Amino acid sequence: xxxxxxxxxxxxxxxxxxxxxxxxxxxxxxxxxxxxxxxxxxxxxxxxxxxxxxxxxxxxxxxxxxxxxxxxxxxxxxxxxxxxxxxxxxxxxxxxxxxxxxxxxxxxxxxxxxxxxxxxxxxxxxxxxxxxxxxxxxxxxxxxxxxxxxxxxxxxxxxxxxxxxxxxxxxxxxxxxxxxxxxxxxxxxxxxxxxxxxxxxxxxxxxxxxxxxxxxxxxxxxxxxxxxxxxxxxxxxxxxxxxxxxxxxxxxxxxxxxxxxxxxxxxxxxxxxxxxxxxxxxxxxxxxxxxxxxxxxxxxxxxxxxxxxxxxxxxxxxxxxxxxxxxxxxxxxx
Length: 334
Hints:
By secondary structure, this protein is of the alpha/beta class.
């Protein structure tokens, strides 16, 4: 059976072939009557536009590549869902790849995306080398880093204000009267982990305190081991700031169920992200809320602006986060 063409749809609908093309081109102008006739004819004939053929003609694939490092953390499946929904509303199709943060894996995935001739790329918690950024720029493909920053290179980045968030956590714990404060940080190779730790330690250092810091690697098992290590020390912490909620859940489980420690009576715990699970009664986690909807909006706007006008300079956007107080901390002292 031969493939139905746009010419056949045009004849069935009683319109021109260019009218059919406009109906199936996001953002193109067509009257409501024309749209109804073309969609009716297309449905009757079983017609679907050939997106690859259109891409060859227009030079635009209407495809955005989304690259994510891992999906264990609830924050990223939610972010991918919201990014996909937002881009689809703008008439783009989504191509999702997973890649570890190792240089070779990221480069291999990015090369595949270049081969697909995507119109733009969004990376979520994936590092980019300046060389890789330069190759994307040479190919005319804009890149926006979501929830990860990078100095140098022609790359836009959208994050929460991580340093400010780390400072806010430290100030809150000090206001609660905590004296032995520890930090299970995010992976030290990521800007988010570095910035949250930097803001947190900056405030405590200014108060003459040296927090105990362990790299949790954004990994559940590593966070569990770090919790046991901290609590086995001669002077265990009375508060732990954890670099994201994914690790914070592991910390809470270890404290409560492995070590028999009462939270928050003996140890207060604060996370970062405010994923849906944080509000569940089993965890009731105090955490810094990443403003995900505003981050998604800024990411999509930044990418589409650069697709429309490649001369637009890269943006570095940081969005403030609020502290969400729940049951794993005690309120500040008056």
